[in-house]
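Protocol step 4 of 6: structure prediction from sequence.
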Amino acid sequence: MKNLNFIIKIEKTDYNNLSFAKIINSKEISIPESIVWEDIKLASKPAQLQISDKVDNKTDIFTHKCVFKILGEWNTHKHYAYRLTTVDGNKLLLGCGSRPFVISSISENHPATMTESTMTEVTLSYIVPFKAYYIR
């Protein structure tokens, strides 16, 4: 498993907004600048992004897992695409304008002691036959 640089910012947009995205090469994608991104308020930084690779029926399968903590509510019923910004300014795209969608799940913590965190942990999962594209 490989870890990318520290993820310091996460934004989301409706997946339909990416219908005009254009793949430049195997690592880069171009998306319209007019897309409106909603900033996700991270309760703690950095977020964690892991990308793992396996071969299934002679096809590469990349599993992207992004984990971060928030203080507010989270909607798991709507499909979004996510723009992740690293500490050095690179931007990665999780999701696209069609299936497969990024799946989000939450873990709410009700701790047994006052010293444990009560923040909600969000996990984004994206399983596709390509690695997350860098946005250019």
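Step 5 (inspection) to follow. The CA atoms of residues 74 and 106 lie 8 Å apart.
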